[in-house]
Amino acid sequence: xxxxxxxxxxxxxxxxxPAQSPEPGGSKAVAGRRSKRRPGDMIFTGLxxxxxxxxxxxxxxxxxxxxxxxxxxxxxxxxxxGGPDAISLWSFAAPLVFGTxxxxxxxxIMAVPVSIGxxxxxxxxxxxxxxxxxxxMIDLLAxxxxxxxxxxxxxxxVPKMQPLYELLNTYVGWFPLFGGxxxxxxxxxxxxxxxxxxxxxxxxxxxxxxxxxxxxxxxxEAALALGATRWExxxxxxxxxxxxxxVSASMLGLGRALGETMxxxxxxxxxxTFSLHILExxxxxxxxxxxxxxxxxxxxxxxxxxxxxxxxxxVITFVINALARAIVSRSAKS
Amino acid sequence: MSATPARxxxxxxxxxSGASERRLPWxxxxxxxAIAIALAAIVLVLFDSxxxxxxxxxxxxxxxxxxxGYSRIREGRRWANDRFxxxxxxxxxAVAMIPLISLLWExxxxxxxxxxxxxxxYFWTADMAGVVGGMVSGGIAHAIVGTLLITLGASIISxxxxxxxxxxxxxxxxxxxxRVLGRGITFLVDVMTGIPSIVAGLFGLALFITxxxxxxxxxxxxxxxxxxxxxxxxxxxxxxxxLRLVPLELREAAYGxxxxxxxxxxxxxxxxxxxxxxxxxxxxxxRVIGETAPLLLTVGALPMMNGxxxxxxxxxxxxxxxxxYRSGNAVCNSDAITNPxxxxxxxxxxxxxxxxxxxxxLTLILMVMILNIVARLVSRLFAPKLGx
Lengths: 334, 388
Hints:
The complex is a heterodimer of chains A (334) and B (388). In chain A, 74% of the residues lie in helices and 0% in strands. Chain A has two domains: 79 residues, no CATH class; 245 residues, MetI-like fold (Orthogonal Bundle), CATH 1.10.3720.10. Chain A: This is Phosphate transport system permease protein. Chain A: Keywords: Cell membrane, Membrane, Phosphate transport, Transmembrane, Transmembrane helix, Transport. Chain A: Part of the binding-protein-dependent transport system for phosphate; probably responsible for the translocation of the substrate across the membrane.
């Protein structure tokens, strides 16, 4: 099967994995008889290569448009333009970036342990027959639209969390996160992060579960045969094997949490400070929620500033996602 | 794998780590659980704050302690750790079920009433023209039409692009420069999957403002373009997986008969994987149909029907839910309100905006669920019989 491809002078491909090895007919049609290609083939090749390139172009366009549209904001900012009454882009964007990263990290801290627990539950604890339906239940969470999560968070969750927050504020108030002066209704960063955590739970669970299920069965059985308890087996075999997968799953979740709009927009009452007090209302806001709430009645210069923050968000999530994918592909190779 | 080895270990003593280590049968857990629940109930009654939720939470925490202690004494440290970890893992799953069940229950419980009053179907066939204040009328026909049209537009843009890209990745990007290009596209598609939806919305906005030079432009097509930025990567990923499942032998058989490559792809590869492709596309539609943030930026809002993607603002279900939620409680100064357009009188309710939001949320969830079920049915009923 690989012989004709290797003998073909035009084929410069090094080693091809079996799934990708070229079929003899295809390589001959492309490389051997280039002059006799059918018009249908040329059109189809052009179309499919073209739409592949279109993805390149789209991503480039996203970056270009965001950059071009935010140039006025950068040019007129206090930092660059130097005008005394100009608005400082830094003081506009920095609290938003802080709020975005803070909310996403809080959500991640809450979601990752629970997700690992669920993934282990489905892969190693639940009865085999129940594993698929239980996994489906978690996937169901991923199918719920974000605006419904926002509605649920704003109407149902906010009053439900109030007693817990008051308890935390009274007894653990010395800890900076729970300090401050919370007021009702508790539309604070803590509630928003909980909703975010629920929303990123399915993706982290799904990726971790896949990795845990790929643990070599022989190693697991060897550990059990040596007398290990199930938990010792998981600690010695499953978790080390799945570590990189869990890390990249968490980063994918982080990317989601950074860019999520509706949950924050509908739950959080916004502010623009660097406060660490997650129970205090009106202290934080995120880039995405800020864009969504301000864009409707934005003048062109405000819009430029909003698009600048959108560009910042795009860059942050791009880097996070690229890192996550790099970890996944490296662990898949090894 | 789960239970058998553990049971073997429990039947005998584990050598080398103390003769006291032995595995007790699982029903000992019930015993400790009963003790923990009883203790929790007593504590809660003593503090005069008894509730089912509190009982479950406190009982679980107490059971972590009591179960661990009991197991530590009767079974030894290693099995006690195992018990503890098992309890934690079961607890994690239970914690994840709380939001799912409460969300579905709340949506059903709060949304159903509005959906069936004054008569079933009214809410789905009326629009919001002339509905003011706390007037108990109005519906989401315009939002349903808007959502369906904009999603249809997004599908028309992204399905061909996504499918052709997947074909390129599977059938063409095999060697030389195309292979390198394919690698790059795979990476970019992965990254594109993670684009925040609000950024896609900003892109749609900036693109159309630049093209038309009108900062106030808001049309349905902008929403479709923004959504397709989110939809293309999903379609590419799922289609690529499906195309890779088609066995090489089928392609080789076609080439052996002298069929050109493009006809092989159309008549053999696509036809074999059509069920999987349909499933992938349906799931991609289900994913974008609930997107809110891009539509907030690009299509605006409108209280009445607009069936034209190319001009004027549109209402969609997600943005409708958001705007009703933001309106909050209505003010009722009199018992009856007159619709300024139809001159009909309606009752007044302060919670009407929330009722509409929940009913619309129920409708949206129903749409997503139906799409998901259709996708699963298609993949089950029309799956090609490849293996023998």
